[in-house]
Write a structure and sequence with these properties.
Length: about 280
């Protein structure tokens, strides 16, 4: 298939991610051209490779199943055929990558808002961008970038949402910590319908000018859904060690500020524990 084609790959994905449904999911700028794969290692890998070959902003890779899906901090991302929305969107932001710390946060906000609107599930956000329901993880975001290849630097926004898994089918090694739309709501929207909602929400949160005011607005939108702000947290730092204290706010850089007796700014890490302040 040509990188510029707007048609799904031959074979594509049957059912709720079929060619017609994917065409209907496009937003003005996102979702075309599209590569639809029944199974692949990781949609992020396919999208990064495609970006290196010149895929334009808005190009989309969607898969029914991943055999080597990856998550943040080197973890695996599990899925089952037919049960999860798995996609990667190519962006070519008109700002230096170093100034785009709010972009992964924006993708999380868009996904949380879209799930809430489309599936009527009360979603929260766990910094930096886990989509949660009552503390259990419903979805995750992995943003990766590639600076080589033609055109402006490419950023790939990978999104995984647990859609159709029944509670008893959620893999044992993430069960208890994970949930799905079907487990929460008893029913789930078609994956292409949800994809369309996320693409539309992200368009609203991804203006032409990715400036400081935009980044601050993204941070406020995240805080409005945050399950951490004002609570006591323990964060394992990307660089090693743990910081414990009260989550104060999300900065325009995408970092989390923690009051640990002094202000600690955490740029990368994993929140391991959450409890009410004073509890
Ligand atoms: C996380 O919460 O750790 C991030 C999970 C990101 C998973 C998505 S699924 C689609 C895309 N392809 C991948 O291999 N990962 C992302």
């Amino acid at each position: 298939m040509s990188p510029q084609s707007s048609e799904p790959a031959a074979g594509g994905i049957p059912g709720d991610l079929g060619p017609g449904a994917l065409a209907a999911a496009r937003s003005a700028r996102f979702g075309s051209p599209v590569r639809a794969l029944a199974t692949t290692g990781s949609t992020n890998s396919v999208a990064l490779e495609w970006a290196a070959q010149g895929a334009p902003e808005g190009a989309l890779v969607v898969a029914d199943h991943q055999s080597a899906g990856r998550g943040r901090l080197g973890r695996a991302w599990l899925s089952s055929p037919g049960c999860c929305l798995l996609f990667s969107l190519v962006l070519r932001p008109a700002a230096p990558l170093d100034d785009l710390g709010a972009l992964p946060v924006a993708v999380g906000v868009a996904a949380a808002e879209a799930v809430a609107r489309c599936a009527r599930v009360a979603t929260g956000l766990k910094w930096p961008n886990d989509i949660t329901v009552d503390g259990r993880k419903l979805g995750g975001i992995l943003v990766e970038s590639r600076t080589s290849g033609p055109g402006p630097a490419a950023v790939v926004a990978g999104v995984g949402i647990n859609v159709g898994w029944r509670a008893e089918d959620i893999p044992a090694d993430i069960g208890g910590r994970a949930t799905s739309i079907a487990a929460e709501a008893g029913t789930a929207p078609g994956r292409a319908e949800l994809l369309g909602e996320i693409l539309a929400a992200l368009e609203d949160l991804y203006p032409a000018s990715l400036d400081e005011a935009w980044a601050a607005a993204v941070a406020r939108a995240h805080e409005a859904r945050s399950e951490l702000i004002g609570r006591e947290v323990a964060v394992r730092l990307g660089a090693g060690g743990v910081v414990s204290g009260r989550a104060v706010r999300v900065l325009a850089s995408g970092a989390l500020e923690i009051d640990a007796g002094r202000a600690v700014i955490v740029g990368s890490g994993e929140v391991e524990a959450v409890r009410q302040a004073g509890a």
